[in-house]
């Protein structure tokens, strides 16, 4: 609900603006430590990505309320956006998009982590769980690039708007498709922001869809 989102947004914005806020029964402020603001920037950006990886992966509709808050905070506090992208790219290299290549001397466990897999006790997570997490983070990214905080002045441009989504899609199609991964992420991305891209890019968008159908998809075979 809008009122709940405003409460969350205002609390985060007040904290980042140096005001005291209530958290866990305590009053906290970034001014209490010289590195307090940097720490909160880092952890907040990490938390947004975690919500994509966990919450949105399981509940797709959560992408939009989380994204609208993240977008609004990003607009007022650009450092959060820079760190969000850093966390996102580290956890989901396909959001760059980038397919890490194996290099000589790299252990298989290290390489699996580079690809975004969770590895515990030398055991790699199951493929379905991996794809679910990756698609959750891509859904969050696809929602952020098209949404703006509705209660702001909106005088400036979106800090990371649809043009970045168009660039991601174009770059993705310039890479050779990876079995399962590419199809899963393209579907998640287009399901969330395909309509917004269509309205923005019109004929170019439909040409891109024809390219995917007639040229890119057959390369999966």
Automatic annotation (TrEMBL):
<dbReference type="GO" id="GO:0015031">
    <property type="term" value="P:protein transport"/>
</dbReference>
<keyword id="KW-0653">Protein transport</keyword>
<keyword id="KW-0811">Translocation</keyword>
<dbReference type="GO" id="GO:0044614">
    <property type="term" value="C:nuclear pore cytoplasmic filaments"/>
</dbReference>
<comment type="similarity">
    <text>Belongs to the GLE1 family.</text>
</comment>
<keyword id="KW-0906">Nuclear pore complex</keyword>
<dbReference type="GO" id="GO:0016973">
    <property type="term" value="P:poly(A)+ mRNA export from nucleus"/>
</dbReference>
<keyword id="KW-0963">Cytoplasm</keyword>
<keyword id="KW-0509">mRNA transport</keyword>
<protein>
    <recommendedName>
        <fullName>mRNA export factor GLE1</fullName>
    </recommendedName>
</protein>
<dbReference type="Pfam" id="PF07817">
    <property type="entry name" value="GLE1"/>
</dbReference>
<comment type="function">
    <text>Required for the export of mRNAs containing poly(A) tails from the nucleus into the cytoplasm. May be involved in the terminal step of the mRNA transport through the nuclear pore complex (NPC).</text>
</comment>
<keyword id="KW-0539">Nucleus</keyword>
<dbReference type="GO" id="GO:0005543">
    <property type="term" value="F:phospholipid binding"/>
</dbReference>
<dbReference type="InterPro" id="IPR012476">
    <property type="entry name" value="GLE1"/>
</dbReference>
<dbReference type="GO" id="GO:0000822">
    <property type="term" value="F:inositol hexakisphosphate binding"/>
</dbReference>
<dbReference type="GO" id="GO:0005737">
    <property type="term" value="C:cytoplasm"/>
</dbReference>
<dbReference type="GO" id="GO:0031369">
    <property type="term" value="F:translation initiation factor binding"/>
</dbReference>
<keyword id="KW-0175">Coiled coil</keyword>
<keyword id="KW-0813">Transport</keyword>
<dbReference type="InterPro" id="IPR038506">
    <property type="entry name" value="GLE1-like_sf"/>
</dbReference>
């Amino acid at each position: 609900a809008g009122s709940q989102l405003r409460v969350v947004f205002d609390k985060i914005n007040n904290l980042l603006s140096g005001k005291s806020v209530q958290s866990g029964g305590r009053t906290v402020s970034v001014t209490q430590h010289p590195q307090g603001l940097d720490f909160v920037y880092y952890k907040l950006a990490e938390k947004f990505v975690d919500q994509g990886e966990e919450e949105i992966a399981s509940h797709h509709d959560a992408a939009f309320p989380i994204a609208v808050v993240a977008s609004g905070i990003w607009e007022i506090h650009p450092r959060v956006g820079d760190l969000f992208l850093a966390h996102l790219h580290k956890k989901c290299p396909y959001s760059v998009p980038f397919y890490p290549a194996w290099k000589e001397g790299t252990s298989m466990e290290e390489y699996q982590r580079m690809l975004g897999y969770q590895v515990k006790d030398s055991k790699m997570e199951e493929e379905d769980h991996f794809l679910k997490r990756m698609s959750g983070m891509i859904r969050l990214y696809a929602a952020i690039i098209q949404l703006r905080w509705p209660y702001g002045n909106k005088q400036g441009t979106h800090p990371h708007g649809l043009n970045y989504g168009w660039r991601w899609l174009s770059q993705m199609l310039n890479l050779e498709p990876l079995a399962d991964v590419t199809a899963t992420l393209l579907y998640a991305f287009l399901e969330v922001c395909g309509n917004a891209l269509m309205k923005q890019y019109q004929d170019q968008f439909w040409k891109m869809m024809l390219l995917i159908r007639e040229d890119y998809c057959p390369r999966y075979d």
